[in-house]
Write a structure and sequence with these properties.
By secondary structure, the protein is of the alpha/beta class. It has 14 helices and 24 strands. Strand 15 and strand 16 form a beta hairpin.
Length: 494
């Protein structure tokens, strides 16, 4: 594995510097916190300050909610075609500025520029998708059992949506949520992760250029006031829905807080994805799948493979070949064209990954490649063998570049192992037996299954989990339903 840590690569200048906004966004105005406070945003690759943004508090949040409320009626009363047109203008702006938007992601998140560019294109696909879905929010007419009655079901927007997003996909998680909300006729108050506010603010700038009315989209930034701001979004009676992506622990807290006003809530929470390789699999394809699934974003995605189960007859070969591939990775600054994997987001993340590796080794695991942190927020992509269920990785989501390989013998055994988790977001397996493919896909207790593929996230498919991995779905024809209320009208006397 390359030991070159070129962390001080100079970041490219933005073609349009006005996309790099350092103020919060309320009612189509760029504003500072009422307190005047700010906080620093750090580049995880260099650990240098990128800039400062407002440290907003509950008072600022209430103002954003008020503006979203003022805008809601007019936005909801637009035709679906009108909202469709606004979203398509936004999609066009995103694609026109994709290089600058990708640069912002790499600056604040650290992922390689090529991955960041892929995220922007992925983000734009949701804007286009939900622009089209805005025009397909169909109601129903139901035959009544009563004479001279007609039953009509209308679909109406939920209302103001509090959108709370993570740092690992700072553009995609914002746009996947707000595109559906806006298409349905909702207005939004976005609280991006404190580590990555600039992507959300750039989206707000592009919304202004796309002509979005005042108050429809609002962005509040905070670091030290996260708990207070989150509580306000969850308990404010004017906010009718919370859409959150993040850890299961925080999701449970938001769910509890939202119960005070019986809010509609969507949660996309933590995972502990099993990745199964049967002995009849195409090994080359399965190795590529593990690399794509485990190491994208340096392992910092909720659908990353966390437990990799390999059938005993191919275990040694698979482990050796995977380690050879991983040893060729280049870790470094995301703006270095040679970099394949960037840093972790911060030292807290490095410490967690280190703890998982050290625990596994102490309990008998073998490091085939990687396994150490050498500088700053970088951790070498790692392959571990001889894993067992007693190790912390088995039950905790690592959220880092560690491929942990477990041995199994039979199909029934591995299904039991895979399902032995309170989480149920994603699962993957490789096999060329068509009967097994259907059996295992049906048996895995997850919301999403990749069969002979690690690529499961797209605008057409319903993204989400079961068990403690969340509530609701994002993307697909189902995604807009989470932002809609059903109204049943019984018309008599006809």
């Amino acid at each position: 594995m390359s030991r070159n840590f070129a962390t001080e690569i100079k970041s490219p200048k933005l073609k349009d510097p006005s996309l790099f906004r350092k103020s919060a966004f309320i009612n189509n105005e760029w504003i500072n916190a009422k307190s005047g406070e700010t906080y620093s945003v750090i580049d995880p690759a260099t650990e240098n300050e990128i800039g400062k943004v407002p440290e907003m508090n509950v008072e600022d949040t209430k103002e954003a909610i008020k503006m979203a409320k003022n805008a809601f009626k007019d936005w909801a009363n637009l035709t679906a075609k009108n909202r469709h047109d606004y979203l398509l203008k936004l999609q066009s702006q995103i694609l026109e500025n994709q290089n600058d938007l990708a640069t912002i992601i790499t600056l604040e998140n650290g992922k390689p520029y090529s991955e960041a560019l892929g995220e922007i294109k992925y983000s734009a696909s949701f804007v286009e998708w939900f622009a089209q879905e805005a025009r397909r929010v169909y109601g129903d007419v139901i035959l009544s059992s009563l004479k001279n009655h007609k039953i009509v079901v209308e679909k109406q927007p939920v209302g103001i949506v509090g959108v709370i997003t993570p740092w690992n996909f700072p553009s995609a998680m914002v746009l996947r949520k707000i595109s559906a909300a806006l298409a349905a006729g909702c207005t939004v108050v976005i609280k991006p992760a404190p580590e990555t506010p600039y992507s959300a603010l750039a989206i707000a700038e592009l919304a202004v250029r796309s002509g979005f009315p005042k108050g429809v989209i609002n962005v509040i930034t905070t670091e030290k006031n996260i708990k207070e701001v989150g509580l306000e979004l969850c308990t404010n009676s004017d906010v009718k829905k919370i859409s959150f992506t993040g850890s299961t622990a925080v999701g449970k807290l938001l769910m509890e807080q939202s119960s005070s006003t019986v809010k509609n809530i969507s949660l996309e929470l933590g995972g502990n994805a099993p990745f199964i390789v049967f002995d009849d699999a195409d090994i080359d394809s399965a190795i590529e799948g593990v690399i794509a699934c485990k190491f994208r974003g340096s392992g910092q995605t909720c659908i990353c493979a966390n437990r990799i189960y390999v059938q005993s007859s191919i275990y040694a070969e698979f482990a050796s070949r995977l380690a050879d591939k991983v040893s060729g990775f280049q870790v470094g600054n995301g703006f270095d064209t040679k970099t394949t994997h960037g840093p972790l987001i911060n030292q807290k993340a490095v410490k967690k990954v280190t703890r998982h590796v050290e625990d596994a080794v102490a309990k008998g695991a073998e490091i085939l490649v990687g396994g150490t942190n050498r500088t700053g927020n970088f951790f070498y992509p790692t392959v571990l063998t001889n894993m067992s269920k007693e190790m912390v990785i088995t039950s905790e989501e690592t959220f880092g570049p560690v491929a942990a390989l477990y041995n199994f013998e039979t199909e029934d055994e591995v299904i039991n192992l895979a399902n032995d988790s309170p989480h149920g977001l994603a699962g993957y397996f490789y096999s060329r037996d068509i009967g097994r493919c259907w059996r295992v896909a049906d048996a895995l207790e997850v919301g999403m299954v990749g069969v002979n593929t690690a690529m499961i996230s797209n605008c057409e498919g319903p993204f989400g989990g079961i068990k403690e991995s969340g509530i609701g779905r994002e993307g697909s024809k189902y995604g807009i339903n989470d932002f809609i209320n059903l109204k049943y009208i019984s018309m008599g006397g006809l």
